[in-house]
User: Which sequence fits this backbone?
């Protein structure tokens, strides 16, 4: 099974829609292995978004991410990276279709409400940035044949 990283950004908590978004991942059959609410510091945000440094939106992205707590999680499932990316939809809101998280809930591209790893390599790096091995809670749901 593949693991991926997802971060619900401050706008999710401000709008009180965290439960709705978490349930979308669960209904798709993804298993939560780690979950936490945290306030990131500038160094952590800059490390997380290092590949965007120098882009015109970088500083606003950093400030937005620092504006409130985030929910970080590790999800597991078959093809988890691709499954989550399809669930959240494209970053650009005009391209995000109804039925995706961004299409249904995001109001502005620059204040995107969710981040998800775009590859297995990114997932590994991001998971390690946010979680220690002892913070994982592996479990057997007994439903592997259902999904």
Assistant:
């Amino acid at each position: 099974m593949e693991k991926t990283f997802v971060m619900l950004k401050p706008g999710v908590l401000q709008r009180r829609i965290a439960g709705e978004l978490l349930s979308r991942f669960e209904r798709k059959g993804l298993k939560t292995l780690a979950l936490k609410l945290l306030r990131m510091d500038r160094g952590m945000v800059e490390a997380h978004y290092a590949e965007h440094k120098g882009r015109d939106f970088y500083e606003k992205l950093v400030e937005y991410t620092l504006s409130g707590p985030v929910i970080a999680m590790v999800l597991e499932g078959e093809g988890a990276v691709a499954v989550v990316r399809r669930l959240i939809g494209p970053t650009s809101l005009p391209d995000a279709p109804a039925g995706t998280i961004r299409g249904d809930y995001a109001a502005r591209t620059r204040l995107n409400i969710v981040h998800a790893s775009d590859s297995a390599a990114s997932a590994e790096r991001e998971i390690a940035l946010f979680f220690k091995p002892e913070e994982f809670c592996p479990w057997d749901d007994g439903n592997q044949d259902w999904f």
